Amino acid sequence: MARFPVHTLDSAPAASKSTLREVEARFGMIPNLAAAMATSPVLVQSFIGIFDKVHGGSFSEPQIQTVLLTDAVTNGCAWAVALHSALGLQAGLDPLDVDAMRAGRSPANKQLGALSTLARTLIEKRGRLDDQEIERFLAEGFSKELLLEVITIVAASTITNYTGSVTNPPLEAGLQAHAWNS
């Protein structure tokens, strides 16, 4: 597979440098996936914008990580599965729920299970939910507004998942314990 460059602040295109500085300020480092995204200033700038919307929305961090981990598994992006496994555990997800999602199943927690199932179904059915799928999600205490907000999280993860699959960045040492193969 062709390797894409994993940029540093020095090697990144000029139009990507300020966004990489923002990423570094938020994470304390530049994750390899963001460094690979920097090849395209449009991509890396779009990613940081949608990242802000997702993490500034209505869902808690464990809920967001549930959707992001489910999406990473559903899309088969090993880098993102490792990252969101680590972040999900850090956010307080039950390790058994993280293991379930890594295996393609929904978490045992009912609300997280509803989020995971919705996210997987949105990807697998390309957004074509039927009335029963919508009603199952709403029956777990979520609103129509939140259902639509899940689409934003799925869109954000699609950017990272597709970029990870295309650019194939190396997994950071700190994520090795969460390595995953589809």
Automatic annotation (TrEMBL):
InterPro entries documented for this protein: AhpD-like (IPR029032)
Name the UniProt record assigns to this protein: Carboxymuconolactone decarboxylase family protein
Superkingdom in the source lineage: Bacteria
